[in-house]
Amino acid sequence: MKLKIFGKLTEIFNTDEYNFSLENNISIAELKLMLDKEFPKLKETTFLVAVDGLKADNNQLISDTSEIALLPPYSGG
Fold first, then answer.
1. Most buried among 15, 28, 36, 61, using CB within 10 Å?
2. 10-residue block means of pLDDT along the chain (77 residues)?
3. What's the CA angle centered on 57, arms 53 and 61, to 5 degrees?
4. Long-range contact set of residues 44-51: C-beta below 8 Å, sequence gap at least 24
5. Residue 26 pairs with which residues in a beta bridge?
């Protein structure tokens, strides 16, 4: 699965894409826990998760074919 990373979050990941594999579908909450273990500084950061171009909540399930993006907070403009 490819995770697209935007804005200041790229400083935590040191890249704008992060690849990993899933054996089963997981929730956004489970994805966040997994990423927190791999990238501890992520716990200190507020961000949104988008799945297939739409904002997702923590209960939404994702699969290996989902397009996932991590988005930092943004303001108007």
1. 28
2. 93 94 91 95 93 95 93 72
3. 80
4. 45/8, 45/9, 45/12, 45/72, 46/72, 46/73, 47/9, 47/71, 47/72, 47/73, 48/72, 48/73
5. 62
